[in-house]
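Lab notebook: predicted structure, single chain.

Context: the supervisor wants predicted structures on file for every construct in the current expression panel, including those that have not yet been purified. This is the next one on the list. No modifications to the sequence; it matches the entry in the shared construct table.
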Amino acid sequence: MEYAGLLGAVALLIWLALRGIDIVFSAVLCSLVVIVTNGLPLAAGVTEYFSFGPLGAFTFAGKFFLLFASGAIFGRVMGESHAAAGIAMAMVRKLGAHRALWITTLSCALLTYGGVVVFVVVFAMYPLGLKLLQEADIPKRLFCAALALGAGTFTLTALPGTPSIQNVIAAVALDTDLFAGAWLGIVGGLGMFGGGMWYLERQRLRAKANGEHFVAGPGDIISNIEEEGGSYPNGLVAFLPLAVVLLTIIVPRLLKMSLDESSLAGAGTAMELLRFANSQPIVWPCIALISGTILAIILFSSVRQNALQVMGKGAQDSIMPLINTAAVIGFGGVVTHTVGFERFIMIMVESDLPPLVGMFTSVSLVSAITGSATGGLQIFMQTMAPAYLEMGLQPGVIHRVATMASGGFDSLPHCGAIVAMLTITGLTHKEAYKDVGVITVVIPVLSTLGVMALVAVL
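Prediction complete. Output recorded below exactly as produced.
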């Protein structure tokens, strides 16, 4: 009953998501199924494990509320000021509208490799991407897949040196650095990027041949200022708010890497600011986003007179993505308290599988059940990584392969980041998940297996 309830609840959540059933309702319903079938205390299951535990829905919502809100405010201001459209049009003139998916993927990759949180990337890129899609007449579902490729695959789990939370978790647990297993990460990253772009371009050409077109959603704001006899903001000027956001986030990290404590010993205030920036993975990006928002309001008169109303609409835009994501995270919080989940961990550690295969299977299944690469990798490192070290696997190999494996089956339909991205872009699982699934599950898993084969051969 325990295993059936656990696996059945995960399967039910995936089925409901693909059917387009409200994800909050689905997450609560499936959490109750887990609670009842696993004999968990009802009160604690609902109020602690689901709501306020370490992986609780409202723990997540409270922690990330400001990030979602500031990201949505920035996205709304960039959209209504026509700044995002100005950047898009400049890119189209330089690179051509048909390269919209390349522009989206590489832009997202640059942002996430620079340390920008995935949710911020989606909010920042969405207004820009809408104009790119309109100019290129590419279906919106492929933009969603390009977002996922650039922001949620090779820059988070494969490329060495990335400051992503997954890379940090592995480094802390194994006492390695962020560049551990560098050549494995490069090979895996190239596989994810190359495979993803091949798939996206193939689908773009197929969509064009089938007569598919770009269709804006009811909540999408797309500038068509030229129809009113006006012109878009200059591309360089329009890029300034986005540049402020990126530089504010990235520069403190670069300074930390290039300077030591003694270099700034005489600059007390600067040192304190640098420490604050690098110790605040949520608050500092919020400050960066609000700074970019303020600059956009100063630069663009179209939003200056009603700035508070526009910012208020942006804050409202953040509510549904936040709540939807939090609900799925809460489901994972319930799952981790079940006896079945604990037994699964023990079975995997004591199995007769080759160590590399056992590690891949363990990380993949834990990430799949929890719907979170971060959660799955954290659980693996805390409970199973020491056993694989004792089996003779090198720390660098465990670091890179486990990190890459966490970014495969985590992206099933109940993944919180997938839910957030679809909510932000106004698409349903039925409309977009097929392409997103290939990009975030199939190709990363194949790339990870390829890297494992190289480790076994060499």
